[in-house]
UniProtKB/TrEMBL annotation:
This is Pyridoxal phosphate-dependent transferase. Residues 112-445 form the Aminotransferase class I/classII large domain. SUPFAM superfamilies: PLP-dependent transferases. Residues 1-34 are annotated as: Disordered. It comes from Cercophora samala.
Length: 476
């Protein structure tokens, strides 16, 4: 059995503000290697992680997620001055242009009705809630006696806002989450004091698989809320039926399952036939099964700037989630809600997903071929999303961890995200550099093909540069 937590025999740790080694701490378990101890980017990360000495009332550690931190470092290298000369493979966003064959053109203008000038309901406008319910009933609940209605849907201003609303209405609970997973969970899980976040490490050797028996173990220990992305960010893998149905059976009447399904349309497991992945398919009673599904226009409709998302669940949950918007975010932009309604016609969505899947699978295959040609070992080809969880262990030592590889890529105008950010550690109970994600980066093939080619070219230059460096007779 592999050591999934990656602990060794750590003798000392590093002062997070200065980067200087200091005496042993009880939860530091491995000695930092030369690539960490001598690395500017590692010292910079450690200093930023705990924050600088705060101003009164300021906790700087809540200021940014991993992707934002990476963008800030890229800005120091000129990214914001000449973004067109960079390959941003770090941002978790799909291409937004209208040139994907088979996809419908996005609106370039929006008719702003008189009603939409008013404050909108914090749970969203009823016609959009009806359209979301109808979409899920048509795509995932045909023939089932229990159907979603508009009262099972809350419209929220983006996925993060949706997660924050869900967190705000949770009862006192242990909340189980998986490692690795979406970086913003880290901040959300540390923000609220009405629950305790419990990490569940997954094994690389096992393909980061969420087995039903792992869910049963967590419920047995008292976990009453489980949150996970599915399809999975950052690994690009999916929990599909029949295992997804088994997991929902285990949770039924025992735990609330929060299923983040923003990548549900990026599904390559069904021959790109337009089928999307959703826990909605396995719900027995939409008002009794404690399953909260969150999705939106951001990823599969390729409209991240619109900030229109939704939550499906039992009416009692949705009522509370809608109400708490009055003190958290104020609700979603009404004109954009109105403009979203015609996009959710089921036949149109099915056709859109078919085009999306063919296009992004082709990009995935291109990137996999390029990376393998450079010498990367990719054990688990992603079957969903637009991410590759890229193992760096076979690279030359100076770039075999996520932060140093990230730093080297910046020199070639390429942005990736170090894997350490996906090792969620909201309570900071352990040293981040004991992380099993330390030797990974997340590579996004969301951007257009010309950006992917530029990014792969830059990464190839990085790899070749360091191969040449370590082979030099004077290298130590």
């Amino acid at each position: 059995m592999s050591n999934t937590l990656g602990f060794g025999n750590r003798k000392f740790s590093i002062n997070r503000n200065t980067g200087v080694p200091r005496p042993a701490r009880r939860f530091s378990n491995t000695e930092p290697g030369i690539n960490e101890a001598s690395s500017k980017i590692h010292r910079q990360f450690r200093a930023a992680h705990e924050g600088h000495l705060p101003h009164a009332g300021l906790d700087a550690t809540r200021a940014s997620t991993g992707v934002v931190w990476c963008t800030e470092r890229a800005a120091e290298h000129g990214f914001l001055d000449e973004p067109d000369k960079w390959a941003n493979l770090g941002q978790g966003a799909p291409e937004v242009e209208d040139d994907i064959e088979g996809c419908f053109p996005r609106p370039k203008t929006i008719d702003i009705s008189l009603n939409s000038r008013e404050y909108g309901p914090t749970a969203g406008i009823k016609p959009l809630r009806e359209a979301v319910a109808n979409l899920y009933n048509e795509m995932h609940r045909k023939g089932k006696p229990s159907q979603y209605t508009w009262e099972n849907v809350a419209i929220v201003p983006g996925g993060r806002a949706g997660l924050i609303r869900i967190a705000a209405v949770l009862n006192n609970a242990y909340v189980g989450f998986f490692i690795p997973d979406y970086t913003a969970y880290n901040e959300m899980l540390s923000l609220f004091k009405n629950f305790a976040a419990i990490p569940v490490p997954l094994s690389e050797e096992d393909g980061y698989h969420i087995h039903p028996d792992k869910i049963a173990e967590e419920i047995a220990r008292g976990t009453s809320v489980i949150i996970t992305s599915n399809p999975r960010n950052p690994t690009g893998l999916v929990v599909a039926n029949p295992e997804l149905a088994e997991i929902q059976d285990i949770c039924r009447e025992r735990a609330t399952l929060v299923s983040d399904e923003f990548y549900s349309g990026y599904n390559y497991t069904s021959n790109c036939d337009g089928t999307s992945i959703s826990a909605a398919e396995n719900v027995i009673d939409v008002d009794e099964d404690d399953v909260l599904i969150i999705d939106g226009l951001t990823k599969r409709f390729r409209l991240p700037g619109w900030r229109v998302a939704w939550i499906l669940g039992p009416k009692e949950f949705i009522k509370a989630i809608g109400s708490c918007g009055s003190y958290l975010d104020g609700g979603t932009n009404v004109p954009f809600q109105e403009a979203a309604i015609p996009m959710l016609e089921p036949a149109l969505v099915k056709k859109e997903m078919q085009a999306l899947q063919h296009h992004f699978k082709a990009k995935r295959d291109y990137v996999i071929e390029r990376l393998r040609g450079m010498g990367f070992t990719i054990r688990h080809v992603p079957d969903s999303t637009f991410y590759i969880w890229l193992n760096l262990e076979g690279l030359p030592g100076p770039i075999s961890d996520g932060l140093n590889f990230f730093q080297a890529c910046l020199e070639e105008k390429v942005i990736v995200v170090p894997g350490i950010f996906f090792d969620l550690n909201p309570a900071r109970r352990r040293d981040l550099f004991d992380s099993p994600c330390h030797h990974f980066v997340r590579f996004s093939y969301g951007p257009k093909m010309d950006v992917l080619k530029m990014g792969c070219d830059g990464i190839e230059r990085v790899v070749n540069k360091f191969k040449k460096l370590v082979s030099h007779p004077n290298y130590k």
